[in-house]
Amino acid sequence: MNKREIANLLENYFPDNKLILLSNRQPYVHKATPRGFVCEMQAGGVAIALDPVMKMVGGTWIAWGSGNLDRKFVDQKDRVKVPPQDPKYTLRRVWLTEEEVENYYLGFSNRSLWPWAHNLCGEVVFRRKFWNFYKKVNQHFTQVALDEIENKKSVIWVNDYQLALVPQQLREKSKGQMIIFFWHIPWPNYDVFCILPNRKEFLEGLLGSDLLGFHTSNFCQNFLTCVEKELEAEVDFESSTVRFKDHITKVEAFPISIDFEYFSSLAGSKETRAMLVKLRNRFKLDNTILGLSVDRLDYTKGIPEKLKALELFFERYPRYQGKFIFVQIAAPSRTKIKAYRELREEVIKLVNQINQKYEKKNWQPLVFINRLVDHKTLSVYYRLADLAIISSVRDGMNLVAKEFIASQIDQKGILCLSEFAGAYEEMEHSIPLNPYYTEGFADAINRAIELPLERKKERIKKMRNYIKEYDIYKWTYDIFRSLSQMLIPKPKKDFDEAFIPK
Ligand code: GDG
Q: In the chain, what are the domain boundaries?
């Protein structure tokens, strides 16, 4: 996607508008480490996906200042220019108290909404205190956004499930702003939706936006059905719009993507090539196949399910014992939540168990890297892997699938992808897997490995071409284009004509 086209679109339709982006997670964190202070990006799809967008468009990104040195690097208005080495936009940090983090973030966001949206009802915890803090912190973000707007016309782009009430709060306090909301995780079906105690208020919060984006049309349909059944709103499935209290929200699918050129050229860089040799030697890859997974250590990513499938794979296909190594990179995530600590223990136990069972002289089947790995190293693994496994039990999109494909410049690898990841809708040339069905999963790994090289090349080439076209810039363009279409004057009375079709 040509970045100039996005700039033109913005200049034509939103010439005097300031772009304000909100998310819970910030793109850059300042923190103290034993090596001194660092400013780093964390593992997490939203920040990683939106940073290139903000670098291109400019504006202000409002997010929680979660790093232990974040306060030291901001000005009096809590702002800092980022990225630090080549500033392109402003990061405005929002401060949260310990009690707010406990209840809004670890509580309602990550113990209520996260498992709820991923259909994992057994993990869900609802507490009134979580909800009250959620509302309070959303209000706090809204206030900071209003402060940034300074009564100017703005496009406000709110991100993800932690900030669902912000669109409505903003609309009540400031008229005439264009509000986009992007929901980055799955939206559950109506039966699961109904377990959310404050579900009406929650929906009303989101319906404050003008444009509401999800990754897939399935999530859009789920959302529209929930609104239709829950609120006294006019829902038009054909135009995918909702009229609620005289405000119209367009609901649309925009499958998120990655910066293809960045990942592709990083994989081909001199530095990557030098590191490739080292890793090749370390894993003795001349006669060994390398399997790879990169995940936040999260129970939605299906890591134990994958390990069990790998155990069965070695049992069913013993010819791969001594010939296949699997590397699991698992960046620590939400470690203050018990379910995440328990998951880590379960994963370590399984890895040890499988390694003990199959280990031979000079060969260990599984390598578990439980830390945040820098992007350059990640790129080397992506390029080197013969097989990437994405085994999410449920996932909004899954960017790792796309990063792996973009980094496969030698076009020799293959992607095994869960049918329950949003990415599955687009990656039709991957090998599908069902993480709940261990035998089928083990067979899918075998099928992927045994696919002739020519067939692998054909598949990966098609997927590379697709992601090259539908990259993160095309995603951004599509969102702004959809928003711009709403600016075309529309007849007030006739709801059916309210939106100009694409
Ligand atoms: C949500 C949705 C949706 C991982 N480990 C390391 C590392 N990562 C990076 C990956 C990738 C990102 O983190 C993870 O992306 P996912 O898409 O798997 O996402 P979630 O964090 O669950 O994000 C998801 C996404 O939002 C975007 O809408 O796709 O469905 O759940 O970029 O590369 N990065 C580094 N070291 C690591 O060890 N540097």
A: 3-96+136-257+472-499, 261-469
